Amino acid sequence: APSNTSTATRTLPYGTGPASAASEEYQLLGLGIRTVSFLRIQVYVVGLYVAKSDLPKLQEGMVRAFFTSTAHGDSTVSAATTLVDNEKAQLRHELVEGPKDGRGEKMWDEVFRESGVRSVLRIVPTRNTDFGHMREGWVRSINARSALVGKGNVSEKLEEELENSVTEFKGIFGGGRKGVGKGKVLMMNRGAAGDLGVWVEDEVSEQAEQKKEKKGEIKYLGGLKDERISRLVWLGYLGGGNVASEEARRNVVDGVMDIVERPIETSFFASFNDNTFVRHAS
User: Fold this and answer.
1) Is the pLDDT score of 269 beyond 60?
2) What was the pLDDT predicted at 2?
3) Which of 43, 157, 171, 196 has a 20 to 30 Å separation from 141 between CA atoms?
4) Which residues pair with 124 in a beta bridge?
5) What is the tens place of the pLDDT at every residue in 110-144?
6) In whole angstroms, what is the distance from residue 196 CA to residue 228 CA?
7) What's the rounded Cα separation, in Å, for the pair 137 and 231?
8) What's the angle, vertex CA 94, arms to CA 122 and CA 53, rounded to 5?
9) Distance of alpha carbon 210 from its chain centroid, rounded?
10) Contact present, 111 and 62 (Cβ < 8 Å)
11) Do residues 237 and 48 make contact, with C-beta atoms less than 8 angstroms apart?
12) Which of 260, 233, 227 is nearest to 137 (CA)?
């Protein structure tokens, strides 16, 4: 089973980020296996990474979201910046065990919506996986959580824009490419403003195989600016009563709690030296 304790440093090729961005190291929060059907057939391993320089934002955003969900209008409580032991236990419970009232999902929603944390979903199939299958799962997640972005309570124009964005998202996984091979990498990046970018590792060419190269070229599939799409896809792994990988959710929560429980002034750069990769800009 995937473990948060394994140490791995990954350097991703040039071209996997905005041209204006400097090289950025991403910290693994947690990972797990996505399974389907009652037979629990393994489909892929998914890991959530956060830009190392954004870890303080994640800490602050999660603490703020917790107090927002429990303040009931008490501005003094919602302005707090640290958690005491019983509050830490309550936060963990809400994020993992408390989907019925939706508070955990709403906390994640606020963090993604308000904090500007950059993150990556890194997916590695355990078998050759069809894009159509993966896309359908993400679209179901978007539709199931669309109330979080105001569907049914916003103007007809905004709802139409969301539908157009879903269509655009589906189109990213078209273009004649069928899917992702076993052991290859699919990455979805959420930028500070919620913009989405998708990259996939290509199959190794015959020429590369002759040179005994094991990694394929990373190719850009597409992206979109509507932050609601990436937010809802991410929530499909983290929030609510039916997530794509319960194992991934629990491991991510472990990683988040490790961050939240640190003093606000802790140097994250000194503390996190494993489970990272470097994403280079073009």
Assistant:
1) no
2) 52
3) 157
4) 45
5) 999 999 999 999 999 999 999 998 999 999 989 98
6) 10
7) 15
8) 45
9) 36
10) yes
11) yes
12) 233
Please state, as a whole number, how many other Cβ atoms lie within 10 Å of the Cβ of residue 173. Answer: 22
**CA–CA dist 9, 267 (Å, integer):** 20
Provide the 3-class DSSP secondary structure of residue 60.
helix
Contact 198, 186 (CB under 8 A): yes
Three-state DSSP class for residue 96: helix
Q: How many helices (H) and strands (E) does the chain have?
A: 10, 10
pLDDT at position 160 is: 87
The tokens of 21 are what? 């961005």
Element (H, E) at 76: helix 75-78
The two tokens of residue 28 are 């693994």
CA 143 to chain centre: 17
Residue 168's closest CA among 244, 235, 229? 229
* CA–CA distance, 249 with 255 (Å, rounded to integer): 10
Pairing, β 276-279 against β 9-12: parallel
pLDDT digits (tens, 9 = 90+) for 225-258: 999 999 999 999 998 888 999 999 999 999 999 9
pTM (two decimals) = 0.82
Per DSSP, the three-state class of 88 is: helix
